[in-house]
Design a protein that fits this description.
Layout (H helix, E strand, L loop, with lengths): L1 H4 L2 H12 L5 H12 L3 H15 L3 H7 L7 H12 L10 H17 L6 H9 L2 H15 L3 H8 L4 H14 L1 H13 L6 H11 L4 H12 L3 H8 L2 H11 L3
Helix pairs in contact: 2-3, 2-4, 3-6, 3-11, 5-6, 6-8, 7-9, 10-11, 11-12, 12-13, 12-14, 12-15, 15-16
């Protein structure tokens, strides 16, 4: 309830601050979600809320976070994402999309460098409509979507997994949050922190799309899985936010 009632920008600032104190892919997800899964103006509001709450900038703290010292490419990528301010209009340059799709393929497939400098520049700076056009050109030119390519690589390359998360959050956030919900439920125990974050943060944004994606991919509903893994008042709050299915 505290997450739900908090101002969204202040909530995301708090989530980002906590994520930098814990190891693991799921905490990297939080920074990517904050940077990529909402609007450019929301990210600016998060940075302002973070500065007011912690007397430091989000960008500075990501750059100084010791958890990322062993992987400078990951650190650079995260800093660029949280520092971005994307164009929010609908204009798309098709020739640029074609050229940058080729750059992505060269870096990710030919060079096996998912966080090559060209990739970081493209993914951290282009507008969401421009990125969607680029990824569509990639699919047309190479017969496979870039997230499918990254999914194949993620088993052996953590950086490919990080890039796939960013691609999903930027262009199809419902895919990412459906995966967060599912991964928080399957296996022994429940990752309540991730489950709560995913449902609370998307309840008023795109929960309908998340539920549709979840059902299509996992052949179950969010409601049924939440019911099977939680109970009591916690269960009731989550189901209220999920809404009817």
């Amino acid at each position: 309830m505290m997450l739900w009632t908090a101002d969204p920008a202040a909530r995301d600032a708090k989530l980002a601050h906590k994520a930098m104190k814990k190891k693991g892919e799921r905490y990297v997800w939080v920074l990517i979600e904050v940077a990529c899964a909402s609007t450019p103006d929301h990210l600016v509001a998060v940075r302002k809320a973070y500065r007011e709450a912690y007397s430091a900038s989000l960008e500075e703290d990501v750059a100084a976070c010791p958890l990322y010292n062993k992987d400078p490419l990951l650190k650079q990528f995260l800093v660029r994402l949280v520092s971005s301010y994307r164009y929010s209009g609908e204009l798309v340059d098709d020739e640029l999309a074609r050229a940058e799709a080729a750059e992505l393929h060269d870096a990710v497939v030919a060079r096996k460098q998912p966080l090559h400098g060209d990739v970081v520049r493209i993914v951290s700076s282009r507008s969401k409509p421009q990125l969607k056009a680029t990824f569509e050109r990639y699919r047309q030119g190479h017969g496979k979507a870039i997230d499918e390519v990254l999914e194949e690589e993620r088993r052996s390359d953590q950086l490919a997994a990080v890039l796939k998360t960013a691609v999903w959050c930027l262009t199809s956030p419902e895919k990412h949050f459906a995966e967060v919900i599912r991964s928080s439920i399957v296996g022994l125990g429940t990752d309540e922190e991730s489950l709560t974050r995913a449902i609370v943060s998307r309840a008023e944004i795109d929960m309908k799309k998340v539920k549709e994606e979840y059902k299509a991919r996992y052949r179950k509903t969010v409601t049924s899985d939440v019911n099977g893994d939680t109970s009591g008042y916690y269960n009731g709050i989550l189901l209220t936010l999920v809404g009817p299915e």
